[in-house]
Specification:
Arc Repressor Mutant, subunit A; RNA_pol_sigma_r3/r4-like; 3-stranded antiparallel β-sheet; Sigma-70 protein; 3 domains; mainly alpha
Length: 178
């Protein structure tokens, strides 16, 4: 392998023979680059978060920009113990002091009610026969009654009547949530 070819290859132990590999439960699996990145992204984010927490704060209150590994090696060479690293915790008050407004708190009760409504709606839709379920699906993605009719094999007027009846049934079933 020439120097140029070697330099163009990613320096990654999971990339060899021209393909990406993941080790899951001690089993090596060949994956695409996108799958590899999607799988590794949470681990990379967590490692980066921990690195950010480990940064030293200097006497001016700024975060150190040196590599922590280099700093530890320098201190070890001088016979000094490693530094205790803790970054300062940011509070939401800091945002308001700097002129940023914190958005309103999320209404948990409203979120729970919405989730329950959606669960009940999906359960109601699952109980419909396939044609009615298809009508509701096509209507939900913005199809007109005229577009739905040939797909189902009914007239536009029949689709209108079914849709009206289906909405009435759903309204009745979901009246406790609305």
């Amino acid at each position: 392998m020439s120097i140029k070819e070697n330099q163009s290859q990613p320096k990654n132990k999971d990339f060899y023979n021209g393909t990406w590999h993941l080790t899951i439960d001690e089993q090596v699996i060949e994956v695409t680059k996108e799958e590899y990145r999607a799988y590794k992204r949470p681990a990379w984010a967590e490692r980066k978060r921990k690195e950010r927490e480990m940064r030293c704060i200097d006497e001016k209150g700024n975060r150190c920009i040196k590599s922590c590994r280099e700093c530890d090696f320098e201190r070890a060479e001088k016979g000094l113990p490693p530094l205790e690293r803790t970054s300062s915790v940011l509070s939401l008050d800091k945002f308001t002091e700097d002129g940023f407004e914190v958005s309103d708190a999320v209404n948990i009760a409203e979120l729970v009610a919405d989730k329950l409504l959606l669960e009940e709606l999906f359960a109601a839709l699952e109980e419909l026969d396939p044609d009615n379920r298809r009508i509701m699906y096509l209507f939900s993605i913005g199809k007109s009654e005229r577009d739905i009719a040939p797909d189902i094999g009914l007239s536009q007027k029949a689709i209108n009547k079914r849709k009206t009846k289906l909405f009435a049934q759903l309204r009745e079933r979901l009246k406790d949530f609305i």
